[in-house]
Write a structure and sequence with these properties.
seven-stranded mixed β-sheet, 431 residues, Rossmann fold, alpha/beta
Length: 431
C-alpha cells in the first residue's frame, strides 16, 4: 500500500460525500495503490452512512478528541505514507498530488497558508490566532515550519507511528512537528489556499484551542531544547544566550584553525550536529546518535554511526581525527585513545577537546551552565579529565602534543600528532 488518506469526521454529512469523490478523482491520477479511511468521532447525522455508501473504509473512533482520531487512524493505516485532511472543504483534495510529490524531500510535508502562494479565507479571529501561532512557535522552538497548526499534511507512516503524543486536541499537530524536528526528520511546506468550510460548523473552539497550544509550548520546551535534539549543537551556534553563543563560536574557530593545519581526509568522532562538521562536507561525520546523523544529511553525505570504543574504519584511514566534547560523556576506557591512534596515518593530527576539571574555572562554569541550560550536556559529564591526565594518555598512546588552547580557562582543546611507527607505543602495550 503506497498511501493512506485519513478523513477525520464529526457531523459532516453534507461534505463527506463530495470530499471523498474529489479525493478519489485526484488519487486516480497518481497511479498508486491507496486507501481512504474515514475515522468518525461519533456523528449523529448521516456522515457514516454516506461515507460507507461511497465505498471507503469507515471506523468508529473509540476515544474522544482530534488527537485520538488521528492516532487511531495512523494505527489503522496500511500505507507507507499517510495524508490527513479535513472534510469541511477547507482542505482541497486537489492538493494531494502536490503533497505526494514531496515524499522524497521530507518525512513530513505541510500544506501551509503562510508560504508564498498560500493564503487563508478563515474568519478574522481564527486567521489572527493561526498567524500568531505561526510567528511565536517557529521563533521560540526553532521550528522550520511557518504553518504549525495546519492539519493538512503528508507523513511517512513509520516516523509518526510510535511518537509519544500526549495532547488530546488540535495541539497534537504542534507536538508532532516538535518530535519530528527533534529526531532529525525533514519537514517541508507546500502552499495552501485555505477556504472557509462549505457547510456545517467548525469543531474548533478558539480560546480553548489557543490555551492548549500554550500548554504544549511549556511542556515541549524541554524536548525541543534538550541536548538530545538532533539540531541542538547547530542551534547553539546561534543561541539567544550570549555565553553559549560565544562558547560555540570560539570552539568552532579553534577547531577550524587546528584542522586547517593538516589537509586531507577528516573524521569527526562524536560530531553531533555541530557547525564544525557542517562546514566540512567532504569529512566523515561519525556519531552514536542516529537523529544527529539524520540531521547532517543536509550537509554531510559521508556519515557513520559508531561507538567510540571500536571505530569501524581501516588502519591509517585518516589524516585528521576530531574528537571534541566526547570523552567526558563516556566511561573511562583507554581503547578510545588507541582506536583514535589506529585510524590515523603516521604524522596525522588528533584534535581532542574536553573540560579541564583540574582547574578552578571549569567547576564554576559548569555550576552556572546547569542553572542556565538544565537540559544541556553539563550533567552528562561522567568522566573527568585534567590537562595533566590527558597529556599522559596521549603520550602513552603514541601522540605528541603540539598545541593547547582554552576557552574561558575551562574547556581544553589539544592538537596532537601521531608519532611515526618506529616511535609509537603499540596499542597492546598502551595499558
Amino acid at each position: 500500500m503506497d498511501l493512506s488518506v485519513l478523513l477525520l469526521t464529526l457531523n459532516e454529512e453534507k461534505n463527506v460525500g463530495p470530499i471523498i469523490a474529489r479525493a478519489v478523482e485526484e488519487l486516480s491520477t497518481l497511479r498508486i495503490v491507496y486507501e481512504i479511511i474515514v475515522v468518525d468521532g461519533g456523528s449523529d447525522d448521516d456522515t457514516v452512512r454516506i461515507a460507507r455508501a461511497a465505498g471507503v473504509r469507515v471506523e468508529l473512533q473509540r476515544e474522544k478528541g482530534y488527537a485520538a482520531a488521528l492516532k487511531e487512524g495512523v494505527a489503522l493505516a496500511k500505507g507507507q505514507w499517510i495524508i490527513t485532511l479535513d472534510v469541511d472543504g477547507s482542505h482541497p483534495p486537489a492538493l494531494i498530488s502536490a503533497l505526494w510529490a514531496k515524499r522524497d524531500a521530507a518525512e513530513c510535508a505541510v500544506a501551509s497558508r503562510f508560504v508564498p502562494g498560500g493564503s487563508s479565507e478563515a474568519p478574522p479571529l481564527r486567521r489572527m490566532l493561526s498567524k500568531v501561532l505561526s510567528m511565536v512557535y517557529p521563533r521560540f522552538l526553532a521550528l522550520p515550519v511557518r504553518d504549525v497548526s495546519s492539519g493538512y499534511r503528508l507523513y511517512r507512516r513509520d516516523v509518526i507511528a510510535d511518537l509519544p503524543l500526549v495532547s488530546r486536541n488540535f495541539a497534537v499537530l504542534l507536538e508532532i512537528l516538535i518530535h519530528l524536528v527533534a529526531a532529525g526528520r525533514r519537514v517541508c511546506e507546500v502552499p495552501l489556499v485555505y477556504r472557509v468550510r462549505e457547510s456545517g460548523s467548525s469543531k474548533a473552539r478558539i480560546w480553548r484551542f489557543g490555551l492548549s497550544y500554550l500548554h504544549v509550548l511549556k511542556r515541549m520546551w524541554s524536548v525541543r531544547n534538550s541536548a538530545a535534539a538532533a539540531d541542538y549543537d547547530s542551534r547553539a551556534f546561534d543561541s539567544i544566550i550570549p555565553p553559549q553563543r560565544y562558547w560555540q563560536r570560539r570552539r568552532y574557530a579553534i577547531l577550524r584553525d587546528f584542522i586547517a593545519e593538516t589537509p586531507g581526509l577528516v573524521v569527526d568522532v562524536g560530531c553531533g550536529s555541530s557547525r564544525t562538521i557542517q562546514s566540512m562536507p567532504e569529512a566523515v561525520a561519525a556519531d552514536f546518535w542516529l537523529p544527529k546523523l539524520r540531521y547532517l544529511a543536509r550537509t554531510n553525505p559521508l556519515r557513520c554511526r559508531l561507538t567510540i570504543f571500536r571505530l569501524p574504519f581501516k588502519d591509517a584511514a585518516f589524516d585528521t581525527a576530531v574528537c571534541s566534547q566526547v570523552i567526558e560523556h563516556v566511561p573511562y576506557d583507554e581503547s578510545i585513545f588507541s582506536e583514535l591512534n589506529r585510524v590515523l596515518k603516521a604524522g596525522g593530527r588528533l584534535i581532542i577537546g574536553t573540560p579541564d576539571y583540574g582547574r578552578f574555572w571549569w567547576p564554576v562554569i559548569e555550576f552556572f551552565y546547569q542553572k542556565i541550560l538544565p537540559n544541556a550536556y553539563a550533567d552528562e559529564h561522567i568522566t573527568h579529565y585534567t590537562r595533566a591526565k590527558l597529556r599522559v594518555l596521549l603520550e602513552r598512546h603514541g601522540f605528541e602534543v603540539l598545541e593547547e588552547k582554552y576557552i574561558c580557562g575551562g574547556e581544553l582543546i589539544v592538537l596532537a600528532k601521531k608519532r611515526c611507527a618506529a616511535d609509537a607505543i603499540p596499542p597492546h602495550q598502551a595499558h
